[in-house]
Write a structure and sequence with these properties.
Helix content: 40-55%
Strand content: 15-25%
Distance between the termini: 28 Å
Amino acid sequence: MTSRASSSKFTGQAGRPFLRRIAWLYVIGALCSLLILVLVSYKTYGLSVGMSPGEMRDAIQATPNYLSVLLVNVLVGVSVLLLVVQLRVDALRVLLTVAVALIFGYLMTAFFNLDAANRFIQGEFQVKIRSDAPSPLDLSYGDSLQGEFNNPADAQPLTKAEYTFAGGAGHEVTILAYAAEADSDLDLQVSLLGPDGEVLTSGNEATRRFLRQYDEYLKSEKDAVIKDFVLPADGLYTIVAEPEGASAGVQGAFGVTLLSDAKPSVGLSYNSPPVGATFNAPKVAEPLKQAQYDFIGRAGDVVSVLAYAARPNIDVDVQVSLLAPDGTEIGANNDATADQVALFAPDLKSTRDAVIQNITLPADGTYTVRVQPEPITTATKLSETFKATNKAYNAFLLGPLSRLNRWLIWVRDALTLIMLGLAIAIVFRAEQFSLGAEGQLYFGALVSGVIGLSFGDAPKALLVPIALLSAATAGFLWGLLPGVLKAYLGANELVSTLMLNTIATRFYEMVLTWQLKPADAGYIASDWIPPNGLLTPIVDISGDQLTIAVYLLIALVVITWLLIQRTPIGYEIRMIGANIKFAAYGGVNTRRTIMLAMAISGAVAGLAGAHLAMGVHRKLILNISLGLAFEGVVVALLARNNPLVVPFTGLLYTYLRTGAQVMERDANISQEVVRIIQAVVILLITAEALVSFLQRRRIRRRGTVELELLEAQKVGEPTPAKEVAGG
């Protein structure tokens, strides 16, 4: 009696701390699960802090299929609970692995954004001169002006027209003076005056050759032409046009045109259209870093010089200076004030534009406007780098929840990846490094798609289960093949599964291209699978669907866990995974178990292919997977090959991938950055596996601890020896 009482007392005292630890574990897991559920639902339903409870309820009910959305969010929360309960302390290691990868990814994103501040020194700009004074220039090369001689309606009828232009030494010019109408009685003559006011040349008739050459302007031989005159010096030239001889008092409209192949000696004039270029254009051998433009000014004229980004979406930050004819700087500015932006709108767009306002010109002559980007300080470079990186990471981390359709794509893609993670976890638990899930997926997709296309008139309740069962069978058989090669021929499962993947994908492509592709299709794909052959949607957002594959996945997770933890074959798989020699010594048929592990894994991968065909694409397409099975390897490894943890790691991994797509669209950051994050996750997992490998080598050398104990600690389970002892 005493012995029994003391034994019972000892058991109760030892059990209570254990039960308390388990209770606390469930409490922590439940709190984390609830927190994730609230956060995901808050973003998914588009709720905000300022909403009242009634407004929140209305927003939730206004969401399409809101009950199904809530159910899926609850399942997301449950996956967090399972992570905490199943992995315990190892859950922190999983999250720490992802956190380290995210930190590294942030630094890599910042590295790619080191040139974010370059937008302030790169882009198209324009320059303009504003003034209330009349422009010293009337014409530029290529311009035409119109007028009318001897109009009685004018207070002072025009009898002689004078127009000025800026010319450069050596420039060859042609001047045309012509009547506006072909039957006009005007007989014109034209003269060119130099900068000193002296007549340089004149013309009073147009030859037939000129009439043919300039038929766009000249109407008759009474028009006047100065042909190909070479200007002797830089300066202001004057064109004088007037009626000749008997037509001196004739009324009539006329035109004057100045032609030259030379570049105008000045690019600006008062209130003329702006000129501009592009600073530091990408992929240019000699990018423009500074621009200069000249204009003719008169002493006493009050002008404002504007330099600004050509369009509102350009962020180039310019600075401008004004140089007098003698080269001295008489004005400069880096930024415009808010009042100046309003005053000179719509030319100025922001305070980054520059303006020299109301400056009085000191002398007659040619003035120079010099424009260049404002230099970027180191503080600005760092600030812009981290602003751009924060924007990218905000899109990356919150993008999948920012819209309901993005949430749907995240969950839908996660279903496939979780199935693949389950498939790989089964075979990895047997310590078989099989990578055949890709080929098994392709066969599952092909078989389910062919059945759906061929028997689309069959009842949905019959057709969908048959298609799913057929996909699982196809995956089972294709997974059994490398198991047989491994068990009976000793073939390396890594090599055989990779080769079989190639066979499966090429066979899929061949059937799709030559048998299933419609004759009139513009790309390689099958017809749409009839509705009776598709998985029923539970959430539909503008054609994007989340299907009953959610329920199929729940069943797969439970069945896979029961298979591994509560069945004889599962026990044998775990025994082989812990120590194949120990398992064989204990009477386990290792050949049969290896084959079954690979085959069962293939069946689950085949269902993942059926989901792609019947629930995602709703047809068979080329490259239906694009290496999803290899990402499933990472999902399984992150989950420590625990079927109950795979849903969380699959959701997490797919969340990163969906966030990468959002980041690429919203922040113009290549999703290859996320590929780097994924690579870091794999490297960290590999490093952890390396540590375990070194520990096993040390244990073998010392011979002090059973190898099975280390393996059990790795997966968080009792050792095989303890399992045997415990029945």
